[in-house]
Known about the structure:
The protein is α+β, with helices and mostly antiparallel strands. The chain folds into two domains: 1-62; 88-225. The protein has helices spanning 2-79, 110-122, 144-148, and strands at 87-94, 99-103, 140-141, 165-166, 173-176, 188-193, 205-208, 211-215, 217-225. The strands form two sheets. Strands 2, 4, 5, 6, 7 and 8 form a six-stranded mixed sheet that branches. It has a three-stranded antiparallel sheet with strand order 1-9-3. The protein is elongated and about 115 Å long. It starts with a helix and ends with a strand.
Amino acid sequence: MTAFTHKQTIFQEKAESLSAVVGSSTTKLETFRSRVQESNHAETTLRLQIVELARRCQEMEVTVSSLDKVRQTIHVLDLCPGGPSKAEFRIPVWLGHWVVGNFDTVHKSDGQIDQELNALCAQQIQLTSSPAGIGGGQPRAAEVSEIQQLTIDGAPAENTAQVPLIGTCPNCEGAEDMPELPQHASGHARICWDPGEPLTSAARRTDCSQGRKAVLCVIDRPETKQ
C-alpha cells in the first residue's frame, strides 16, 4: 500500500502540473485568438480603405482629364485667326450647401421643373453669402452634364445630401415612360444620383420620378482670358 500510495501521489502531482500547463496554454490561446480577430478586423478595414482610395483616385483622374480638355479648348480658341481679343469663360462654383425641394415630374414638364430648380437656387442669394472668390451673380441649378463631368469648382465627388440629386437640362432625360411604369409630363423619368453615390455618369440613375430632391446650386464665376 505504501508503494501504491507513493505512485498515486506522483501521478496526482503530474496531473496537477499538466492541468496548470493546460490552463496557462488555454489563457495564451484566448489571447492569441483575440489578437487574430483584431488583425482580421484591421485587415478588413484596411482593404475597404484601399478600395475607397482607389475609387477616389479614379474620380480624380476623370476630373483632371476634364480640366485638361478645358485647357486644350482655350488654347485652340487662342489660335483662331480673326477671333476676339478677349474671350470670357464662366466656371460654375458650388454655393457650399445642398438645397432640397419637392418636385412633381409627373405633372410638370422638364422646362417647368428646371424653372423651379433655378428659382429655388435663386432664393439662396438672400439666405447666404457667396463663397469666397465667386463674386456677385445669380445662383442657378447645376446642369446634369456639369455634375457628371465634375466641372463644378468646390462640389463634392459624391452626393452627400440625404435625398437624390437632380440637375437641369440638357441631358436630363432618363428612361422613357413604359405602360406599366409611372407616366411623366415630358414622357420620361429624370436622371439623378442617390445619396452616397459618386457624381459620375456610371453611378447615376435613369428612373427618378417625383418627390424630394437635392439641388446643387452654383454661381458662375467669370474667367477672362486675355
